[in-house]
Amino acid sequence: MLLLVISGGLAAVGWHRALEVEGRLRDAQAAASALDQRAAAAEKQARLIQTLESEVARLQRQTDELHELRGQFHEFQQLKAEREKLQQQNQQLQQSQQNLSSSLRQAQVQAQAQTQQTTPPPPVSWIGIAMNPASTGGVEVQSVVPGGPAAGSGLEPGDLVVAVDGQPVADAAALRDLVGKKPVGQSVILDVQREDAAFRLELKTGAFPR
Questions:
Q1: What tens digit of pLDDT does each residue of 167-190 get?
Q2: Which pTM was predicted?
């Protein structure tokens, strides 16, 4: 009977100890599970921190690029302002050049006008005869101007001048044109007809009186 009691007590003690061990095992498993969860959370937090650090680095690069773009934009604005300033200066220079050209042209026109006013025209040659048209061609000497180039040359009223230096003259305008082209003081040769005679006279041109 005593053995049964002892055996029962030992069994009870063993049972309690088994329960205690089982409880400790459960506590240990729970602690291990909690540690695993904390480790997982820590790992997740570490990945999140790494992600945030990568994002911060990316934002920093973007910030640096933005600063660089701001610098470039500021430089562009300065270049644009300088370009506009140069364009304005170029327009002013062009306007000044146009004004200078206009002033120069006006000065040249005024100088030419003053030169024309102050400088007498060059003298025109003549031989000092009054002329009538001739029906047979040439010009008839109406009179010889006293003291003129033809005075004393032998040319007489009624003579017919048909050529000057070998060039035929059709009328008084042609003779004046041929003689007028000669320099003053140059000799000319007149082909003259007097009645039935034909001869040549040489005389020097004079300046037409003004």
A1: 999 999 999 999 999 999 999 999
A2: 0.45
pLDDT for the residue numbered 112: 75
C-beta separation of 175 from 182 below 8 A = no
| First-residue to last-residue Cα distance in the chain | 185
Helix (H, G, I), strand (E, B) or coil at 210: coil
Domain chopping of the chain, boundaries: 1-119, 125-207
Whole-angstrom distance, CA of residue 128 vs CA of residue 206: 8
Q: Tell me which of 10 and 21 has the higher pLDDT.
A: 21
- Output b/e per residue, 195-210; b: 16+ Cβ within 10 A: eeeeeebebebbebee
Rounded CA separation 191/182 (Å): 17
Say how far apart CA 198 and CA 200 lie, in whole Å. 7
Distance CA 184, CA 161 (A): 20
User: CATH topology for 125-207?
Assistant: Pdz3 Domain (2.30.42)
pLDDT mean over 142-161: 93
